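Hey, sorry to bother you again with one of my protein questions. There's a protein on my desk that I can't quite get my head around. No rush at all, and the record is pasted right below.
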Amino acid sequence: MFSTCLIILVLALSTSAETHKAKSERSARATSSALCLACEGAIPVIQIASVFGSSVESIVTVVCDVLGNLHDTCEDLVKKLFGLLEQGAGTGSGKDICARLGVC
């Protein structure tokens, strides 16, 4: 289950990376939308990972290392999500949490 969630997140973030490479304003909106979806998808993955004792670094390695120029954005997002969830501030819908992070 954990591996399946990570694969889904990688695919969502990969789509975001491809969209990010486009130069038009439309692709910028699509990138923002893709990052929002990726953020929402990352929340259950990070929750599961934390239950199994996975570290931020292990999630970054599995998910973010495949994203090329979006690696830093992904890494920052994963760290912020881990922080929110550890503080108990990660309650509410995925969209609400990601909106608090300024991604959605």
User: Anything to note?
Assistant: The first helix runs from residue 2 to 20. The CA atoms of residues 46 and 82 lie 7 Å apart. The mean pLDDT is 73.
